[in-house]
Amino acid sequence: MSQQDFPIEGAGLGLRRALLGPLQGADLPGLDFMEIAPENWIDVGGSLGRKLRHFTERFPFACHGLSLSLGAPEPLDDGYLKNLRSFLDLHEIQVFSEHLSYCSEHGHLYDLMPLPFLPETVDWVASRIQQVQDVLGRQIAVENISYYAASATEMTELEFINAVLEKADCLLLLDVNNVHVNSINHRYDPHDFLNGIPLDRVAYLHIAGHHHEAEDLIVDTHGAAVDPQVWKLLEATYERFGPVATLLERDFGFPEVEELLAEVQQIKAIQKHFQAAPIQQAIAAL
């Protein structure tokens, strides 16, 4: 699937329950799509279900999963996958993504754990992604996660991600904040990482805020405004991939809606700059 054919574009915002009321009555200029965690909404009806429908009828939506545990040793949850397919179909949501990680070991761990960067892990997780795509009837995207210690490494993070994308024939939800966080914590060049991602695999982007625990340790929190260094890295990402659909994540510590939407507008402004750049280059070449 090319970026031109992808069901979402522009600048988006993660819809959290705490934002339902503030956003319902707000003017939302420049907001092109929204994203939810399906686990928080499957089988939810009543007033909350109606509030969700208020937004799904106005905006294109993506679903970003939290609990599928793609890399776990136990079987995939077939019941959840069937419910997920029904939910996606009900709300006409074409885009589904999950974390390239695991979050269960005979029970949920309530955290996203990094996978060993090993060839056998590539085979295992790719086969499970293919199963998910078969059940959902959609090509899915997997997200590069932030991590703080690697359990085993025979490959780099970049090599591992690319191998999974190729073997599973899936897309990448490229989290720009996570690239920045990992580049500090694991001491690599984020621009080299971006340059190593295949152009045709990036579905859409995430950006978010983080917490500086120490000079050489950043914690991915989704609880603060986007860091200036992440805005700069977003520009570098657009320079390589074009102005791909980009979603702002915020999970807690919500500011006023106007402040939140100002960050969405900042995404739009950067996207417009890179949309205009090819036209300006063509004019300059005349």
Your description of this structure?
With 286 residues, the protein is of the alpha/beta class. The strands form three sheets. Strands 1-2-3-4-7-8-9-12 form an eight-stranded parallel β-barrel. The model is unreliable at 279-286 (pLDDT under 50). It has helices at residues 17-24, 46-56, 78-90, 119-136, 157-168, 176-185, 190-195, 228-241, 257-285, and strands at 11-14, 33-36, 61-64, 95-99, 102-104, 108-113, 141-143, 171-175, 202-207, 210-214, 217-220, 246-248.
Topology:
Layout: E1 11-14, H1 17-24, E2 33-36, H2 46-56, E3 61-64, H3 78-90, E4 95-99, E5 102-104, E6 108-113, H4 119-136, E7 141-143, H5 157-168, E8 171-175, H6 176-185, H7 190-195, E9 202-207, E10 210-214, E11 217-220, H8 228-241, E12 246-248, H9 257-285
Parallel strand pairs: 1-2, 1-12, 2-3, 3-4, 4-7, 7-8, 8-9, 9-12
Antiparallel strand pairs: 5-6, 10-11
List key phrases describing it.
eight-stranded parallel β-barrel; 12 strands; two-stranded antiparallel sheet; TIM Barrel; single chain; 286 residues; alpha/beta
